[in-house]
Amino acid sequence: MANLEAGVSTDKVTAMIRRESDHYTQRNPTSQRFAREAASHWHNGVPMHWMLDWSTPFPLFVADASGSTLTDVDGHKYDDFCLGDTGSMFGHSPAPVAAAIAEQARHGLTYMLPTEDVVEVGKLLTAKFGLPYWQVATTATDANRFVIRWCRGITKRNKILVFHGCYHGSCDDTFVRLKDGKPIHRPGLIGQVYDLTTHTKVVEFNDLPALETALKDRDVACVITEPALTNIGMVLPQPGYLEGLRQLTRKYGTLLVIDETHTISTGYGGYTRTHRLEPDFLTIGKPIAGGIPCSVYGCTAEMAAKMKEAETASGPGYSGMGTTLSANAMALKAMRANLEQVMTLAAYEHMLPLSERLARGIEAEIRKRNVPWHVSNVGARAEFVCAPERPRNGTEAQAAMHHKVELAIHLYLLNRGIIIAPFHNMTLVCPATTAAQVDHLIASVGACIDELQN
């Protein structure tokens, strides 16, 4: 009897990886040449090490991207369901954003002073997400870092709380995980010289009793969370969990920060507006300016008043928040175009049913072949997981990962003109995605399973 992993033959997984790696190398000679030349000047051959996290023998070099299609330097076109891992969630170079960038480029890129766009972007953010006051940063990491600082300043508490398996960019305070029930530094963390667990508590998502235990000492300034975990794999909130989270944070005087950087895919106004959450602070990163580096954080009127109090108490000097390029003129112009003309209700009305078609279609292919896999989706974001049950927390999501199987799937899809997120089997659809592209992905997943089954 063949050895099985995640319901498919391990021998066939190994054979597929070998075969598809060879095929990738043969069909991408220009990318291979560029990778060889880049290795002379870039650490590990790439300008940002995440570019090595794909399943390929060497990086795929891109020549062009538009809408939902990406073209590599060897001329191959791909249906792109990764979309820059959310950075291009509304498509590559949306026409209104591209036009806004070209227009602003003639008038200066950054000058550390506000423009007319500031007035309009503030109105748009409030109308779209519901919070009355906003600030702009450059990345979601910055936005989360600054909000954590504000929460500590407001509450006069040192600690924060995160959930096992969370992702909030490269914000230092959030790099804490659980191992055997005890907090540890996230594996792989480099150069961390002080113990993050002294100021960060960590519990499992969907566990209200553990959350209450962690908050009882009233030393936690804020809980920062995604409404659904998305980076360790997709972990959806159990019924009543987010309501219980809000009740407990209020009970113990802890502020609630919702990070919508990924879950903005849920619907118009993100998960927060769709499900009527009531955060004290809201952060949004990658897609907010159509792919230009930019992020925002919003707060309630009560928090804005407390921020002023904290500023007064702190006195003059540097707050530790803000960077020179934050809220630059180019980012504001792009964000205005994106909010006005791209991130619209009509866009979501296209994306959501198409993502549902994708999720249910892959689910049908899985069921037809009787493999122990499942599909989860949050709005325009879907994930097929090589495990039978939907995880309830980060530990279960971690246990559901089958890296060799996922590697084989990613290579198989890539060689057939389909890109999905490199870290797991996550997909996004954008306003430019077509039903034909979705059906191509569904059929290709089915064909891949056929080849992996014994």
Automatic annotation (TrEMBL):
The keyword Transferase applies. One of its GO terms (molecular function) is transaminase activity. InterPro entries: Aminotrans_3, PyrdxlP-dep_Trfase, PyrdxlP-dep_Trfase_major, PyrdxlP-dep_Trfase_small. The keyword Transferase applies. Pfam families: Aminotran_3 (PF00202). Its cofactor is pyridoxal 5'-phosphate. Keywords: Aminotransferase, Pyridoxal phosphate, Transferase. Belongs to the class-III pyridoxal-phosphate-dependent aminotransferase family. This is Aspartate aminotransferase family protein. It comes from Dongia soli.
